[in-house]
Amino acid sequence: MILKGTKFQLKVWKYLKTIPKGKVKTYKEVAISIKSPKSARAVAKACAKNPYAPKIPCHRVIRSDGALGGYSGRGGMKQKLKLLRSEKAAI
After folding, report:
1. If you average pLDDT over residues 51-77, what whole number do you get?
2. Any idea which residues carry the catalytic annotation?
């Protein structure tokens, strides 16, 4: 699959594919992992622009306060919750 997005989006999406099923990361953890520690909001925006959900699992990224954040994939927040529960993620 050839992904189309900005350089930053591609970096975020590539990292999202490494988050194992059943695990969640915060937007800040993703930002730190991609060596851009102050870009948690930009990570959230990259997740929101992900046209490849759920293949690129942006549903595995949540807010630092434990809230689910958003989900731009088909089905919205209900789908994000359903996906996380089906993966038995600790949420």
Report:
1. 94
2. 58
* Tokens of residue 8, six digits: 């930053």
Q: Is the pLDDT of residue 35 over 80?
A: yes
Q: What is the CATH number of the domain that holds 79?
A: 1.10.10.10
Contact (Cβ atoms closer than 8 angstroms) between residue 51 and residue 91: no
Q: Please state whether the peptide bond connecting residue 54 to the residue before it is cis, i.e. omega within 30 degrees of 0.
A: yes
pLDDT for 84 equals: 97
Instruction: Give the C-alpha separation, 33 to 53, whole Å.
Output: 20
Q: In 1-91, where do the E strands start and end?
A: 25-26, 61-62
Q: Is residue 38 situated within a structural domain?
A: yes
**Coil, strand or helix: which one is 29?**
helix
Give 18: exposed, middle or buried? Use CB within 10 Å, 0-12, 13-18, 19+.
exposed
3-state class (DSSP) for residue 10: helix
